[in-house]
Design a protein that fits this description.
Helix 2 links the parallel strand 1 and strand 2. The protein is of the alpha/beta class. It is built from eight helices and 13 strands. The longest helix has 27 residues. The termini are far apart.
């Protein structure tokens, strides 16, 4: 009986040790699950995964989203370990509106916002009463209006900057009709409107190059809209997160961005 009891105890201990070993292996597999929009974020992460991560003892599981809206909620809910798609003003708006605690880790690159058109070749040719599609999220709407103001299409209330809304337009000499749309829909809107202000990543996905195809484009100097790595508050010093942040700022990634996107994406 004692022998049988001892065997049962031994088997139980073996199972516990196996479970603990499995748990340790799961912790030690160094996998970081990162959500991203496909271009350029997903492409940059894939480059890191294929060429750099193993040397740092890091494995990346990259989950791509064609629409960036779900990325912060999924990070907040713990379905992702990190995300890479947004700039700090967008993150600040999300945290404020949702009562979330997501934290900026590292700036990586800038995707200049641009004004595109399939109907006119320059800003001066935009006709009276023209329709212009703009992003419908607050941060990028203000950014789009500032781009138009900086290029003489409209005038904004003094000092409003990128916090602008349509209510802050003080002069609209061409009677531009603004068409707010989800950012992902903006490239497809070009056939239906006279021009559209398009986020850099969605322009690239639509094979539009901000450096060559945009009528006007944001200036990089002093631009607060660099895209970067974001995690839940308290996770910013996690070793895996820090490994990825280091790689995102590495000379190899800087060269990859410059060689691949040729000015359409600018290292931060």
């Amino acid at each position: 009986m004692r022998t049988l009891f001892g065997a049962v105890i031994a088997a139980f201990l073996a199972l516990v040790l196996t479970a603990c070993g499995s748990s340790s292996a799961g912790t030690a597999d160094d996998t970081l699950k990162v959500g991203a929009t496909p271009t350029p974020h997903g492409e940059i992460l894939k480059y890191i995964s294929d060429n750099l991560a193993a040397k740092e003892g890091l494995k990346l599981e990259v989950v791509e989203f064609s629409d960036y809206v779900p990325l912060n909620p999924q990070l907040q809910e713990g379905q992702l370990d990190a995300n890479y798609f947004q700039h700090q003003p967008y993150l600040g708006d999300f945290n404020k509106e949702k009562g979330a605690k997501l934290t900026w880790v590292e700036s990586v690159h800038l995707e200049p916002l641009g004004l595109y058109s399939s109907k006119v070749k320059d800003v001066a040719s935009i006709a009276s009463g023209a329709s212009v599609a703009v992003p419908n999220d607050a941060t990028n709407l203000g950014r789009a209006l500032k781009l138009l103001a900086d290029n003489g299409v409209i005038t904004l209330k003094e000092g409003v900057g990128t916090a602008a809304t349509e209510r802050d337009v003080t002069a609209n000499p061409k009677n531009i009709a603004f068409k707010p749309l989800d950012a992902a829909q903006l490239p497809r809107s070009l056939e239906d409107v006279d021009a559209a202000v398009i986020n850099g990543n969605y322009a690239l996905e639509a094979r539009l190059n901000p450096a060559t195809d945009a009528l006007v484009v944001e200036k990089a100097e002093g631009n607060p809209y660099a895209n970067g790595l974001v995690v839940q508050d308290g996770k910013q010093n996690d070793p895996l997160v820090q490994k990825l942040a280091k790689l995102l700022k590495s000379p190899e990634v800087k060269k990859y961005i410059e060689d691949t996107y040729k000015g359409a994406v600018i290292p931060a």
